[in-house]
Specification:
The protein is mainly α and 163 residues long. It is built from five helices and no strands.
Amino acid sequence: MALEPEIPAGRWQRSSWLPIVLLVSLGANLFLAGWLLGGRSLRPPPPPPDHFNDQIHERLSSDGAKVMQTAFDAIRRRFETHAREGRALRDRQMSLLQAEPFDADAYVRALQDSRVARERDRVLADQEIARAIALLSPDDRHQLAAIRQHGHGAFFDRPDRPR
């Protein structure tokens, strides 16, 4: 008869949970890092959907469509410029995540800097759109309202966000 070594019950239970706890912790950390870095960058918004552009050109006067297209192009150029700044901010966040020891305060400041830059871009886009709309004729403004009301465009809102 083979003798098995005696393992105290309390020690066996603790040691069997340790790999599970470590695995769950690793998974949570990887998820958090992916969530923070994966989709939260300063990417420029996508261009207005084609159907929105189509609606703008079909329903607005040619002058009104040109005004709106000019505004969208200006916003796109501004966002492309700011995207380079966003890459630098993202690189800074990555270096802070990899630094030893981890500086939580510096990391939070880097996240706040990214948030401020994104909000600045949104405000500038809103202002550009408002300036363009102010140049439209009353009929073009009403047509634009009808386009938006029927869900054919939300300017630069992301399609995966609820309106």
